[in-house]
Design a protein that fits this description.
heterodimer; A: about 170 residues; alpha+beta; Immunoglobulin-like; 5-stranded mixed sheet; 2 helices; 10 strands; globular; B: about 600 residues; Cytochrome C Oxidase, Chain A; 19 helices; 2 strands; disordered C terminus; copper (chain A); membrane (chain A); transmembrane (chain A); Cupredoxin (chain A); Cytochrome C oxidase subunit II (chain A)
Chain lengths: ~170, ~600
């Protein structure tokens, strides 16, 4: 088959770029350690995740190590529990693992402007871990259409200075 | 066969034996194929016009410019209508018409049976009408229909059964249309053993084989799970499994929109530029790559999903990245063909040749501008495909920003441009309102440039897609580039221009439809010049459709076999989520805590 010289150069350059793109993602996963949402959360009860073994009552929990916290969030039409009625509060300089599950339809769990962004699919538990350095307030958005009140489904995540965080009242 | 001489290019083609004022349009040679093409185009343009009018309602509502048309709770019916009418019906009816033309023209024979062709058209139309009825019923309280489940219809949200039944009927219609083209090809093959498949027919066949492989997913989703669920025959479905089946189909459908555009860029655009296609063999390679790589990539829409192991997402990501290859090759061919044509028309210089292109010809300008925007859309698509960067933009306004460049411009603007060239040939009528047609591609281009750049930037700030009111009481978005009010303004102005573009297009088509036949010569003819490097340079193995279909199926099995098995292993209906009908939402809002 006759392939023009310019076409051949272009073909090789395109393949090189593709390999480069795959390489950057591999680098992110292997070297930089960016963990994807995957199957590690396992399955939960579709309408009552808290009834499942590895899902707790929604709230903030102290993690296995100091400075680590686990946040259990239920998404429901049209609120994050916790998040919407009460903000999620975690201290600065902490590592936080979010456990997210839906009780009705598909929802999104997005901390606006960050890469904390996962789907909440009934029957599945999503697990995302993030580090928070500075005190700051973040917006929490449902970014998957969940019904006619979808645009009301939002909340806040407050990263508070460590002295202001009182584990005895904030943590379950 | 005699063809009218192309007066612009002076291409040394077969000389017309007819007097120059005599027409030889497609419709005169193949009246029954021309009728199917006309009917398909009619439905396609109707869907485009209605979908575009819904688009401006959305653009103005969610940017807060004008909210007088709908309540925010009705926004999602508008959004569903916009998505389904444009992404499924405008595009696929156009494809059905264009492929009927392409098969007939390139094989030089009419479709085998006009009644069969009418049957698949009727089935597609009936399905589309049922789906539209279910969606628009949502605006009328007294009508029990409700289908504001959006274009993706994720279970366990549940629409009226009419929505799913209509989708199924429409899908079967597309299958039968493919069967019609395949039948025409097989008859040609038995009359012409050993001959190379004509390029346009080759493109139609590879596209349809890809379509058969990929629509199996959505057919199973609708027929086994969603339709029975909406009829109350089953109590619950596994939302992850149905979502996976949707995206098994949901990415290939993207190529089903795009391949008619590629079909036009490879076969029609070079001629309009004043030259001919660069390489027939590489065009075949591109379509074969789409056939084998389009389906095993769906998991790249599910990077953010729990319940799917990272490894499968990685496989899909790698496949997706290699799917860039046919698009990169197409970019080369499109630009090279334009340059070749421009130089034949007397253009010269490194970039100066561009001035020699026929920018005042709406068919050419539309396709060229569509190709240009597709390049930008391709790059934002690479960001979506990057498994980790995707987390930043997943389900944000970045995503509609991206696909308004791909399906909303690369496909849609190309389809409109092709119509300026093809519609006169299937109606036998000269294109009317030519001046409007000449400005239309530029209106679309400017509108899309404004809207999509603002959508991309808003997405980076975290503004979500698919929402009636992007501002929230609890917090504000922080823009990295520009300001949120400026982005909103650009989206509103851009959306308005795009709707204007669709209305201009519809006006030209309607005026042409109502014009008298036989008034003057058509400006266009169906003749396509031979490529520089013809099919004789292409290895024969490229025409082996059985082999490529087998490769496609094996790749699908590798990408989907194990994850789907693990979702089904615990029972196809487990974990079992009960349906949530979209019509009973008001009660749910009352339960809002806080």
């Amino acid at each position: 088959m006759h392939v023009h010289r310019f076409e051949r150069v272009w073909l090789v350059a395109a393949l090189g770029m593709i390999v480069l793109f795959v390489g950057t993602v591999t680098y992110g996963a292997v070297v930089a350690g960016y963990g994807m949402v995957d199957a590690e959360g396992g399955q939960v009860d579709t309408t009552d995740p808290a009834a499942s073994e590895d899902f707790r009552e929604p709230g903030v929990y102290e993690g296995s190590e100091p400075g680590h916290y686990d946040v259990y969030v239920e998404t429901r039409r049209f609120a994050f529990v916790p998040g919407t009625a009460d903000p999620i509060r975690v201290p600065a300089n902490s590592t936080v693992t979010f456990h997210v599950a839906s009780v009705d339809v598909l929802h999104g769990f997005e901390v606006a402007g960050t890469n904390i962004n996962t789907m909440a699919i009934p029957g599945q538990k999503a697990v995302v871990t993030a580090e928070f350095d500075e005190p700051r307030e973040y917006g929490l958005v449902c970014n998957e259409y969940c019904g006619e009140g979808h645009h009301d489904m939002a909340g806040t995540l407050e990263v508070v200075p460590e002295p202001e965080f009182d584990a005895s009242t904030e943590v379950q | 066969m005699a063809h009218a001489h192309d007066e612009r290019t002076g291409e040394p083609t077969e000389r017309s034996e007819l007097p120059t004022d005599e027409r030889l349009a497609f419709v005169d040679e193949y009246p029954s194929a021309a009728r199917i093409t006309r009917l398909c185009f009619g439905v396609s343009f109707g869907a485009l016009l209605v979908g575009a009018l819904l688009g401006i309602v959305q653009a103005l509502h969610r940017t807060n410019v004008f909210r007088g048309v709908i309540e925010s709770s009705d926004y999602y019916s508008v959004l569903t209508g916009h998505g389904v009418l444009l992404a499924l019906f405008f595009t696929i009816f156009f494809l059905s018409g264009a492929f009927t033309w392409g098969t007939t023209r390139s094989l030089g024979r009419d479709l085998p049976n006009p009644r069969f062709s009418m049957a698949w058209f009727g089935l597609q139309l009936g399905g589309a009408v049922a789906v539209a009825t279910a969606i628009f019923g949502g605006f009328v309280g007294e009508i029990p229909f409700e289908a504001d489940v959006l274009y993706t219809f994720y279970a366990p949200l549940q629409a009226h059964p009419l929505f799913y039944a209509g989708l199924a009927a429409w899908l079967v219609g597309t299958w039968l249309a493919g069967a019609d083209w395949i039948r025409s090809y097989l008859r040609w093959r038995s009359d012409n053993p050993g001959e190379r498949v004509p390029l346009q027919t080759f493109m139609v066949l590879t596209t349809m084989l890809m379509w058969y492989v990929s629509t199996v997913g959505v057919a199973v989703e609708v027929l086994v799970f969603l339709l029975p669920l909406s009829l109350g025959l089953i109590d619950a479905v596994d939302p992850l499994l149905t979502r996976t089946l949707f995206w098994y189909f949901g990415h290939p459908v993207v190529y089903f929109w795009l391949m008619p555009a590629y079909f036009a860029w490879y076969t029609i655009l070079p001629k309009l530029a004043g030259g001919r296609l660069f390489s027939d063999p590489l065009a075949r390679v591109v379509f074969v790559l789409f056939l084998i790589l389009s389906t095993p990539v769906g998991f790249h829409h599910q990077y953010a999903d729990p319940g799917i192991a990272e490894g499968f997402k990685f496989v899909a990501m790698t496949n997706t990245m290699f799917l860039l290859l046919p698009s990169f090759l197409t970019a080369f061919t499109v630009v090279a063909s334009m340059e070749y044509g421009a130089r034949r028309r007397g253009g010269n210089g490194y970039f100066g040749w561009m001035k020699a292109l026929p920018w005042a010809n709406p068919a050419f300008a539309g396709m060229a501008l569509a190709g240009l925007m597709f390049a930008a859309g391709g790059f934002s698509g690479i960001v979506n495909a990057g498994m980790n960067i995707n987390s930043l933009v997943h389900n944000t306004l970045w995503v509609p920003g991206h696909f308004h460049l791909t399906v909303g411009t690369a496909s849609a603007l190309t389809m409109m441009a092709v119509s300026y060239w093809l519609y006169p040939q299937v109606t036998g009528k000269r294109l009317q309102l030519y001046g409007l047609a000449q400005v239309q591609p530029y209106v679309w281009f400017i509108g899309m440039a404004l809207m999509s750049n603002a959508m991309h930037r808003a997405g980076l700030a975290g503004v979500p897609r698919r929402t009636a009111e992007p501002q929230y009481d609890q917090f504000t978005f922080e823009a990295a580039l520009g300001s949120i009010p400026e982005m909103r303004l650009q989206i509103a102005v851009g959306g308005t221009l795009l709707t204007l573009g669709a209305v201009l297009f519809a006006a030209v088509m309607l005026a042409t439809w109502f014009a008298d036949r036989g008034r003057g010569r058509l400006r266009v003819d169906s003749h396509l010049p031979e490529p520089v490097s013809g099919p004789e340079d292409a290895p024969r193995v490229l025409d082996n459709f059985k082999l490529w279909t087998a490769v496609a199926v094996v790749l699908v099995a590798i990408a989907y076999g194990f994850p789907v098995f693990s979702m089904v292993a615990d029972g196809p209906f487990d974990p079992a989520a009960p349906p949530v009908p979209v019509g009973v939402v008001d009660a749910a809002i009352g339960l809002l805590p806080g």
